[in-house]
Amino acid sequence: MAEEPTAPPPATPNGGQAPAVQITSQYIRDLSFESPNAPQTVPPGAQPRFDVTVTVGAKKQDDGDYAAEQTISVKATVDEAVLFSIELVYGGVFRLQNIPDDRIYPLLMIDCQQLLFPFARQTIATTIQGGGFPPILLQPVDFVALFRKNHPPKDAQPQAAAAPAAKTETKPN
Length: 173
Fold this sequence. Notes:
By secondary structure, this protein is an alpha+beta fold. The protein is 22% helix and 36% strand.
């Protein structure tokens, strides 16, 4: 597939270039699905418990290119028995232009993650369904709250260590 030519970002009123964010690629770095009791599925009348964990990260690639990744883990259990466990590392490469240095990290950890999440959620739902279970629809993640939790203001108490992940518990309706 041929790459589309990219036009230079439009100029801002003060003569500088406008900030621009472009997704250059998306990828699955790792995908693992385990169903230790296959071919058994959800027992009739059972209410599975779903533990969902989301972690995010980013790293610089080349000049102006950054990889943003999210790791999403879902474990479904009934009583103590594991129905399935899935872990996905989904990422994207973002080209950032004319972004102030102090805005790059929040942009990668919030905005870029929000752009990737729907694709990761679909990959998880499809994989679970392919494993013989009803697909689950992960609820949206508040990446702003996750960022604030992991990066408290500098005037916050130093003893308050940030947790590396957002953990949620989901139960079917």
